[in-house]
Amino acid sequence: MDKYVTLEQYQGMFRKTRSMMAQANLPSRPKPVVDGIVLPPGTDQTVNDLKKFEVREDDVWIVTFPKAGTTWTQEIMSCVMHDGNLEEVNKRHTVFRVPFLEYGFPEPVLRMTNMPPIYKIVAEMPSPRVIKSHLPGQLLPPQMWTKKPKIVYVMRNPKDLVVSFFYFTRMVDPSPQKQAQTFGDFFDQALEGKTLWGPWWEHYLLFWRKRHEPNILVLRFEDMKRDLRGIVEQISQFLGKSLSAKTLDAITEHCTFANMKKNPMANPDTLFENQGGQGTGDKTSFMRKGKVGDWRSHFTVAQNEAMDAHIKEKLHGTGLNFDF
């Protein structure tokens, strides 16, 4: 994206979008539903265009349901693909190093620059590309399943996922309607599969069932918290990199939650008007807490029982389970 916008211009576009949303000055655009999946406004056209998107065999993809550990994993992958050259990594913000394939600015904001849709920018990038997407498997470019690029897929305990996703949606959408939504309202939407990007369980299970395919690596957020160094090495080997122990150690240190949160080139908070979440509290930071078990401070007893029953129903017989 550097070819079209600077980081400062991208920040301006991002902030303008949020400002217009907060003031209800954006044209009203209903959230589209594609194959039963609720998507951000305008994404339906992008998904249609992605049917012709050229996937490359040497692509490296990070695919997740939102708030499952995307930013964390993409930073590890970016560092690995740069062979551990952290000085080079820190020259460019993560949104430029790992573009968000389906993200789209509203038309009034796009007119601020000559930047085309991000998926068109990705099409121009030199190989090997590192690409991020939240799209469920059935909406990804069809060539993903024939070209078979490397795909890292990350899952997170659904209880923590729902809590993190709730705060994330409030942060990125400052509209009065979104700010008025309670956690209970969002929790009910999540159980019904009506949040953005669809039902979390369908998103997870499509990749879980493909976990034995050689071009797909399925990880758990909780394992990353438990053994970050081991996960860094696992990702490195999966991406075909033979990095030294010293380099793996350096990447691990670079990618700790604390270091990423204070690194303006790794933390998406840089895009917001509250730089790094300063003065706003953890609840409004993109990298909020990164904890395992934070759901315990949010769920009521009834919500916990409902989620337990929900998880048992959706994952029964799949072999997929989570630490609670």
Automatic annotation (TrEMBL):
The keyword Transferase applies. GO terms for molecular function: sulfotransferase activity. Residues 58-319 form the Sulfotransferase domain. Pfam families: Sulfotransfer_1 (PF00685). Keywords: Transferase. InterPro entries: P-loop_NTPase, Sulfotransferase_dom. Belongs to the sulfotransferase 1 family. This is Sulfotransferase domain-containing protein. The lineage of its organism: Eukaryota, Metazoa, Echinodermata, Eleutherozoa, Asterozoa.
